[in-house]
Queue: 2 jobs
Job 1
Amino acid sequence: MSDTSIPKSAVQDAAPVRPRWKTILLRPEAMTFVLLILATLGASLLSPFFADIAYILESFTYYSEYAIVGLVLTLVIISGEIDLSGAAMMALSACLFGITYQAGYPISVAILVSLISGVAMGWFNAILVIRFKLPSIIVTIGTLTLFRGIAQVIAGDRSISKFPSWFVGIDYQYVLNLPIPVIVFCVVALALGVILGGTVLGRQIYQIGTSAIAAQHAGIRVNRIKTGLFIGMGVASSVAGLLTASRLASVRYDLASGAELQMVLIVMLGGTYIFGGRGSIIGTFLAAWLLVIIATGMTVANIPINAQLTVLGLLLIISIIATNIIYSRTQR
Amino acid sequence: MPVSDTPVLSARGISKQFGGVEVLSDVDLDLSAGEIHALLGENGAGKSTFAKILSGVHRPTRGTLALNGNPVEVPNPIAAQNLGITLIHQEPISFPDMSVTENLVLGRHDGALLGRVPWAQMERNANELMDMLRVSIDVTKPMRGLSIADQQMVEIARALASDSRLIIMDEPTAPLTPKEVETLFSIARRLRDQGRTIIFISHRLEEVQALCDRATIFRDGHLVETANVADLSDEDIIRLMIGRPLKEMMHRSGAKIGDVALEVRELSLPGKFHDISFTVRHGEIVGLAGLVGAGRTDVARAVFGVAPAASGSIAVKGKTVEIADPSDAIELGLAFVPEDRAVAGIFGTLPVDQNITAAVPGKIAPHGFIRSAIERALAEKSVKDLRIRLAALRQPIGELSGGNQQKSILARWLHTDPDILILDEPTRGIDIGVKAEFYDMIGTLAANGRGVLLISSELPELLYLCDRILVMSEGELTADIAGDEATQESVMRAAVPTKGKHGTGGSPPEHNEVAL
Amino acid sequence: MNSLTAALRFILLRREAGIAVMLVLFSLVVSAIEPRFLSLDTLRIVMLAVPLILIAGMGQMMVLLARHVDLSIGSILGFSAIVAGMAFRDLPEMPWWFGFFIATFVGAALGLVNGAVVTLFRLPSIIVTLGTLSLYRGVLFLISDARQVDPQYIPRPLIEMSQTSPIFGIPWIIFIALTIALISYVFLDHTRLGRQIYAIGSNPVAAPLRGISVVPVTLLVFTLSGALAGLAGVLYASRFGYVNPSITGVGFEFTVIAAVVVGGVSINGGVGTVLGTVLGVIFLGAVSVALPILGVSAFWRDAIYGAVIIIALLIDRSVRESGIRSATLEARA
């Protein structure tokens, strides 16, 4: 025990390490991947549509907005916080966009207003969570009610439409045979994946989520990074709001109503740990496709949209339970 | 002192292992009715573990307990309570939102779950208990508003309410003012005179001499002596506790002392510390001693920017600087090994290499992207240099032993090549053997021209390592003693508050006060 | 400190005082602008607006006291209302009052599921109930075939409970709500089990050390929350005269949470009273009644609820902090 000279005897005092292949297979993302393959196989048995990649891509455009917000939400959850107000931020920023345009300003100004509102709302969340040290999980319940309420105040219950034709229908614009929303999603996923997996910032997000106090003591600017993530949520939400406005050719205060469920679901399905410190962009990326396959499969099977909520809710609960079990097994 | 024949509690062959390490071996002890019995020993000697076994917090690996001659099992704290054994924590566990009255009765099952809560009667009983203890606590107030001393009183009252025959007080006096200590002692004596048995765990020898009838001394998990306090001198106790010549295993730095590396001027943070000024020179090891709540950790946290001071200034290498965040401090060449390793030090579930490189993002990611080869090389060098024992670099650091975790944290800071290191209780919870390695390392750090500010509750550690010892008491600097002139007495005299009142605004996580 | 200021401090530091003052100030300001507001009629409208929120609020309050949140109560309300409504429609020979038992029982079962998932897997209740919020709503679409239960199927006596009065012109439904509040008060303040809910929320780590069985009590709290939301479900049918799967109870959870936190129930558990929650519910009711009287669009309601939740969280935090500060100051004095 007082041995100081032979480091090799050290191993006795440390626990044995799991082989590398096992740590990879035991990652929740691996499960997401397996599920994605199973779901695709199952769906193509159900309907030949699913063998058609164009059909899947088109279906994906309906979920791309939530999936984009889900990517940023992944980082927020890994950092140990959560933001449930994404869907409400989509609605408010889209309504601001609509109102500004309707007031006669050029559409570029309207887009700018929408993006600025995204920054402002994210900042507002950040201030409440960081300056006032309120738990983000409950604060964002408050701000989600507030943001959607403000959307209702400024837009009433009318639809704002009559956008210029070039703005409308972004989901039917293709680049490299991919609809633009899918491209946006993939680009954001790639960028955030590289940041999270390969850069110091990404490393620090994991470290903050593992222990914010230890991170602060190691000189990591915890508050600055978390503020940035909340603002990122706001910006991603306003981008998603604009994409939705373009796809639907109109905005209303109930845009993306209840979509906080889908956003959290995509992240959880991708194996991100609800208590922070673990998770990945690749998981969220795969989970977004998985959700599209499942949801579209249900639509093809003529399950009404409302009843699909059953499956989504169930999936959310099962995925947190499964992820939790996997992590508690591998954590020891 | 009424001492009956059958022991109230007798322990036979009590042993306890944690993760293969035996922290308590074959302890035999008999406690009599109507005695106050001191448990003494260095940190990690096993006295607290023994107390926790008696009170059902831990279960012994081997050995038996008997109450009044009858063998008993104490599987959990509730069972202990039912057997009449109560452990009073230094900082009591309570329900802060609920009233004193409720805290006294919560969990005592004398009625149906849907039975009425007899508020009036409960309050009457609570007041009677407070009268019995001769303390004036408003029993309708929530616990949140009570001082720690009063919270301890509520715990004692709770022990009386369940008619505990054995009351264990784990370092109760550390956070108390002298006046509060006196109150506690008079209550303890009264309880003893009622025939109850009290176990008193403390580091303060004068308190043991003043209060206790018998004392048991632990060392390295063994019981080394049980004797009447009247028959033990302070020197005897210290000799029994240490059990080895200290000087042999300690290192004096003996480094060349250079220019001023860190200068702190009139630093104040209301409620924590006031008007603190000192310097640390290159190559110098400066000790910072003091009792619990004296504000040592708060000063360290302020200097490092974790919780900056409200007023005063800090100069690094002669230049006045602004430190608002740890990242500022790191840029200026400071490093801080925090006291609470599990919370503020390690990233428990992350691999060892990521823990080691956490403070040098620029080194592992020269162009913004992490180069794992560089990261691994840095970590491997640390593992070799500091002899960190592990199975693999990608192992979660939480799986390592405390000493190896601490080495990894030190390694993290060595990669920043700091000029000034602040070490807060660096050897707490670390095996004796590894401690010696740390003393070597601290000596080497100073020999290489770095300034070291060493906060420690273990006086011998400070006395033998430091070139100079600063002493804090109640948030103020009370002494600055050269290393070769410092003695336990001179440090203790400066550390113990004399003005009668004792601030309690210090940082709660400091659990141990000056040893011996 | 003399006894008068001490007494004043005692009263002012109670959170109920704050909300009561707010309620009075709000009423004064509104009636200064529009004198019509201060009338028996308004009182009646406010009282009719709040029973459902009050009943579900009692359950939500218990959940918050135990340091959890239940986001699924809106769906539970809808679910129970649909099941009761379908029973009214498809089993005409069933006695009408049996609907109360059905709805309450269904609600309790759904609440128990919430509690079981939360306690069994140690998951954050907010995420679990976000999941069951949509799960229950989805299942309710399935069982109801997305069809509304039309007014002609709702039993007359049930509808009359919202209109006829046993005494003073106060409808039955309000008496039911007040009875629930009274029972909740007795339960939380005067039974051992009730106090254990506070203990668990006040210090979840210490509770088991004191022999409190955290898991069963947590299960109970979620079950009660579900049962009360279920009861509110059948009263929804009484109050509005129909049950619609895509309307009934949607967004209800935010209203209830807003009311409860405004009433001074802390999201950190262990703090909150029935009186406070009742005042909080009345306050929100008064706000929603005042808006049209003031000529403000009803669209403002959600924004106000959201703002109110955030403000209540900030107040809760500052009350906690000043409590700790004054405690340390007293300790040093």
Note: Chain A is about 70% helix and 0% strand.
Job 2
Amino acid sequence: MWIPVQINEQSAEPLYHQIKVQLRALIVSGQLAEGTLLPSIREFSQQVKCSVITIRRVYQDLENEGLLRTRQGTGTFVAKVGEQERDRHRLDSVVKALEEAVDAGRRVQCDEEELRRLFEQVVKERLSAEQNSHSQPDYEGD
Amino acid sequence: MTETAVRLSGVKLKRPNFQLGPINLEVPRGCVTAIVGPNGSGKSSTFRMILDVTKPDEGEIELLGERVEPGSSSDTALRQRIGYLQEESLSHERGFRASEKAAFVSQWYSGWDVNRYQELLRIFEIDPSLKLGKMSKGMRRKFDLAVVLAHNPELLILDEPSSGLDPLAWKQMIELLHRYMEAGYHTILLSTHIIEEVKRLADYIVFLVRGRVLGVYEKDELLSSWFVYFFTDRELAARADIQIESIPGKQSLERMTGMVKITTDKAVEAEDWLRQQGITAAGKQALELDDILELLVERQRLLTRHS
């Protein structure tokens, strides 16, 4: 099974954290349904080109959060996600993306007002583009 | 999973013009460990000691839970569980046909799986009727790898496995080794110069330089801790209150025109520090493995000079 996780090697954020945030988002958003069997640790590590140690850590952390469960000898599955849990994590990846955008702005000396203006402009452009085209959004896959 | 496949404790090898060690190293089971280092660092010698081909002058070696007693290299039960790919193909085998060598080797391994061997020949597109001396370097390498894998060893020791392979064969080899690791309890210990090979295969990296282990690192952690930051002189002048050289993990500082370039080996802490100080880097870049190796070698050189 292929899991749509994309890592950014140029980010100073540890790899295991990047993967954890994205996998968690896939689970709480329901894109990975309850009961889905995840790839083995080795398989997943090959897919994302990272080490098994990183994936093991991600699986363990998400298991501790109650989002995954491991059955000895069978593998790691997506657990049942409660409504509360879903709400709590739904916006995690959005907040992260916004943080990165703000960092990028600060690198070119944007001030607060400028950032806000850009944010509103981008929101407006994106939403109107979405309304205009009813086709699938551009999806970049490998 | 925390079990150890190979353990070296205080292992030393003394030669008139070279000293290897003392080496203390644990290779975890179920993982891929890559030994990286310049030529002549002692990678092949280390492998030969692990396999009891060369006797260490000091220290102890443990292999798959059993202590290697130098001289008792006839320990065939242990040999059955290991596959070893040498750095150089044996030249005295040039006159053999591939099928003859395979028939010879298969006698020594009770676990020899003829179906697996045939499948490997098919994947690598090897003609077993060819004489080994008539094979191209790449095909010979692929054949040797097939022979080493055919008895399904628990531990694979590969000395520069990809030397001579073209990009397509290299990719086949990587995929094959990935599949080998899927069993979960298999272990690979390899030496390599090829950065991409380390990135694609390794879980742990061992830097071996001039006979010494400079460090054992978890690959992802290593690659995400070494970063280069660039700061404009303008930004730094505006924040004259801050000593940029106190950035956590600073390894080097280089002045360029209009810029300062700083390398750190603690990227996460550095990032926090920059945020606290309210300084923005004009750019940042993760270091490649070869850059990290170069800096570690340099650091070691300075340390030995000062001690």
Note: Chain B has three domains: 4-81+154-219, 90-149, 227-286.
